[in-house]
Write a structure and sequence with these properties.
This is Amidohydrolase family protein. The chain is α/β, with parallel strands linked by helices and about 300 residues long. It has twelve helices and nine strands. β7, α6 and β8 form a beta-alpha-beta unit. The longest helix has 20 residues.
């Protein structure tokens, strides 16, 4: 199995506590324990969404010792003053990005994570989500990344933001809430991989006191997203499994299987979910031939 969107520095339970622990010497032991749990359940490939403390870089070193394939962006890139502080480093403009990208290259990033938009608003139903980079900036970021052989994963919600990301040629759309049929067709045409991360909202509708006053909005957005994923699959969009494990209510390891179940709820057969999780996960994680061989060897053992 392959999970294409996790946050190894978080725990899915207590954001503040996890952040504090990530600054201590205990973090190495915590990560190693998580990796052992992932392997025990047949999950051998993980792709991280970044953190400002570069914990994913530490995790990548531990992953080699644990025989886990772990892909790290080192740090995500976000726009100064906007959402994304805990995910990485901010940039004001393309000149800022050049400097940050040089640093990320020196740290051998596996992929570039860009935070293009904000989050889904749980308090009111609205797809009017701010987009943080303009098209010219995003084109530059994508082009320089691809020139250097680095794939781009884009955190983006809202029809407008998704359309911009597609037009600029990102490799994967992460989340993609409020996507419209037009963007779904475009993703299929351009072979852009979609990592819809259904678990963060899907796990909340099971009942959660923290967001009980927002249940109607969460339920509506989740169900619309399910429908969009089902449509995307029927139209040939390459969908990869990404649980967003580490975010609230999405625990590591269990979150991967939660995502399988949510994808099944979208109308995809379980066998197809597993197959696309592997096949599209290989592409999303940009695995080389040796890594692909390793994935299939372990998949056979698990089956």
């Amino acid at each position: 199995m392959i999970d294409c969107h996790i946050h190894i520095s978080l725990d899915g339970v207590d954001f503040k506590k996890a952040r504090e622990l990530s600054k201590t010497e205990e973090i190495g032991k915590i990560i190693r324990k998580k990796f052992k749990e992932y392997k025990k359940m047949g999950i051998y490939v993980l792709r991280d969404g970044g953190d400002d403390g570069e914990i994913s870089s530490i995790a990548r070193k531990i992953a080699k010792e644990e025989k886990i394939i772990f892909k790290s962006p080192v740090k995500a890139v976000y726009k100064e003053g906007r959402y994304g502080k805990f995910l990485g480093s901010s940039v004001r403009d393309v000149d800022d990005f050049k400097n940050l990208f040089d640093y990320l290259k020196s740290q051998k990033l596996d992929h570039l994570k860009i935070v293009l938009s904000g989050l889904v608003d749980f308090n009111k139903y609205t797809d009017n989500i701010d987009i943080f980079f303009n098209k010219k900036e995003l084109e530059y970021i994508v082009n320089i990344s691809k020139y250097n052989g680095i794939p781009v994963m884009a955190h983006v919600n809202s029809s407008y933001g998704i359309d911009m990301a597609i037009e600029c040629g990102v490799d994967t759309i992460e989340h993609g809430y409020f996507i419209k049929e037009r963007e779904i067709y475009k993703m299929a045409e351009k072979n852009i991989i979609w990592v819809p991360t259904l678990s963060p909202l899907g796990n909340l509708i099971k009942g959660d006191n923290k967001f009980k006053n927002c249940s109607n909005v969460i339920d509506r957005v989740y169900k619309e997203h399910l429908d969009s994923v089902g449509l995307g699959y029927s139209l040939g969009v390459k969908i990869a499994l990404g649980s967003d494990s580490g975010c609230y209510k999405v625990r590591h390891v269990q979150g991967t299987f939660d995502e399988v179940n949510h994808l099944i709820k979208s109308g995809i057969k379980k066998e197809d979910v597993i197959n696309m999780a592997i096949e599209n996960g290989i592409k999303a994680c940009n695995l080389n031939s040796d890594e692909i061989k390793y994935v299939y060897q372990n998949n056979k053992r698990c089956l």
